[in-house]
Amino acid sequence: MDRVNEGFENIAGMLLEMQRRMQQLVAENHQLQEELAALRQGAGILVVIEGNAYPLLTPSLTPADPMRSPF
Q1: What distance in Å separates the CA atoms of residue 32 and residue 45, rounded to the nearest whole number?
Q2: pTM recorded for the entire structure
Q3: CA 3, CA 52: separation in Å to the nearest integer?
């Protein structure tokens, strides 16, 4: 009977570990989706023209107005 309990405890422990890891992966996925959305909007991307760096996204440029040029 102890082997049955030990096997059950091992399975339960593995399931808890899998659940914990799944929660980590979901949180990481959410963070990566947010980063990808920011990159698609141009956040953190600079264009260098003749030594001058220009950000693609400026504070005055909102996502609601993606066609407006910051130059």
Answers
A1: 16
A2: 0.59
A3: 70
pLDDT tens track for 17-66: 999 999 999 999 999 999 999 988 888 899 999 999 999 877 665 555 55
- Strand segments, DSSP code E, in 1-71 are 46-49, 52-55
Residue 55's beta-bridge partner residues? 46
- Judged by DSSP in three states, 49 sits in strand
Residues in the chain: 71
First CA to last CA across the chain, in angstroms? 75
Contacts for 61 with CB less than 8 Å, ≥ 6 apart = 42, 68, 70
